[in-house]
Amino acid sequence: QVQLVESGGGLVQAGGSLRLSCAASGRIFSINDMAWYRQAPGKQRELVATITSGGNSNYIDSVKGRFTISRDNTKNTVYLQMNSLKPEDTAVYYCNAGIRMSMSLRYLEVWGQGTLVTCSS
Length: 121
Known about the structure:
The chain is mainly β. It has strands at residues 2-7, 10-13, 18-26, 30-39, 46-51, 57-59, 67-72, 77-82, 91-100, 108-111, 115-120.
């Protein structure tokens, strides 16, 4: 059994910053790609940023230059530094990762429970 636990959400004024963390725990052999998604009220969940095990990252256009995804493989943790936040960034942010529990098993897609980020104008 493995799980992802997010933290760091909250209320911030426009232009402010927040840092989200997501730690994987349980029986972990290796972690492949990790990602952050978000879901705003009344909208579909969207991919925000991804990072490979080697540290290569990608972002959706609306957060490029403002958000930075990073990971600490020694802690099985992924981060999302969010700067210059806008009201349209308001959403529940979810962590996602491909996790393998042993060498003989395939990667499973695991989701966190979500953390709410609210940006007020």
